[in-house]
Amino acid sequence: MKGYLHLEDGSVYTGELEHGSTQDINGEIVFFTGMTGYQEVLTDPSYKNQIVVFTYPLIGNYGINITDDESKQPQVKAVVIYECTSAYSHYEAQYSFKEYLQKWNIPIIHHIDTRAVVKKIRSHGSMAATISPTLNQEAKPCAIYEDGVFEVTSSKLESYGEGEKHIALIDFGYKKSILTALVNRGCKVTTVPLKMMDKVAELKPDGVLLSNGPGDPEQLSSYFSQIKEIVSTYPTIGICLGHQLIALSFGAKTKKLLFGHRGANQPVYDLKTDKVFMTSQNHSYVVIGDSLKATDLKTRFYHINDDSIEGLAHSTLPIITAQFHPEAHPGPSDSEWIFDEFLDLVAATKGDILYV
Ligand SMILES: NC(=O)CC[C@H](N)C(=O)O
């Protein structure tokens, strides 16, 4: 049936809606530029409450398999695409794109002029949107920018892997690939729900990883002092939201980019090695460079396209952070070595008395 994409600025785009319900769907609209990787995007908890526009014009051609999920279910609020194919072909595929999202009751609006929508988002910024089965002149798009982490964090401690190094993975909505990257490097990993961060000391970890997650990092301001204490006590790596939370907990500030970075070929410069590498990214917020002056955090990585901060290092503590996704999935694994660098920090400090 016909469907309509209403944006917060009043513009309306017409397409075909695949959704059983007649209810309006609201969310923040953002766009992802990778040519592949739709399954990982759908299931990445950082996309909670967001409506994702895929810029690649043909989506679904390799179907959906049972191994590439980044969490237990799709997390996006809805998807906006040009052509949605059910004619998939891949030896591992189990469902079509459409079957999978229908199973979870997630709307797809297709045959939308995605190029026009993305141009609009690039000039006006990520904004609220409504997907509606009616050309509803009264549509008032709204979006949730907070609370997402509380919806996706786990509810109990869980343990994975059997290695000698024990890493506490603080779960703000972690991607499975982050856990896998640690387990594959011989770590025992305990995932710690947001509300159980006070259990970290009891676990006696050798290192801590602060995960990715949805929404505005400021939503977690009541946890900043607890986060600062944890990351000042153990060798730490922060990824995406985790990176932002480390910066905020040391007193730096974040801001929202006009339309964010979501894709698989985002170039990042490493000031330490003087090298550029391609990264997978999915974020709206960035750390404000000037706000780092009052902290002991220093810029380690920045984005080649817009000079925004892409990662930090602490001048005295073993803390490294990445705004990009070294675990990839989707996208290049060129920056996976950051996990090795983190584990070197862990090895170098293993058994030492804490820093605080
Ligand atoms: N992938 C993430 O962790 C995203 C971080 C944060 N929600 C942002 O959009 O900037």
UniProtKB/TrEMBL annotation:
Residues of the active site: C240, H325, E327
GO BP annotation list: 'de novo' pyrimidine nucleobase biosynthetic process; 'de novo' UMP biosynthetic process; glutamine metabolic process; L-arginine biosynthetic process
Pathway: Amino-acid biosynthesis; L-arginine biosynthesis; carbamoyl phosphate from bicarbonate: step 1/1; Pyrimidine metabolism; UMP biosynthesis via de novo pathway; (S)-dihydroorotate from bicarbonate: step 1/3
KW RNA-binding (keyword) present: no
Catalytic activity: hydrogencarbonate + L-glutamine + 2 ATP + H2O = carbamoyl phosphate + L-glutamate + 2 ADP + phosphate + 2 H(+); L-glutamine + H2O = L-glutamate + NH4(+)
Known function: Small subunit of the glutamine-dependent carbamoyl phosphate synthetase (CPSase). CPSase catalyzes the formation of carbamoyl phosphate from the ammonia moiety of glutamine, carbonate, and phosphate donated by ATP, constituting the first step of 2 biosynthetic pathways, one leading to arginine and/or urea and the other to pyrimidine nucleotides. The small subunit (glutamine amidotransferase) binds and cleaves glutamine to supply the large subunit with the substrate ammonia.
Family: Belongs to the CarA family.
Descriptive protein name: Carbamoyl phosphate synthase small chain
Organism whose genome encodes this protein: Metabacillus litoralis
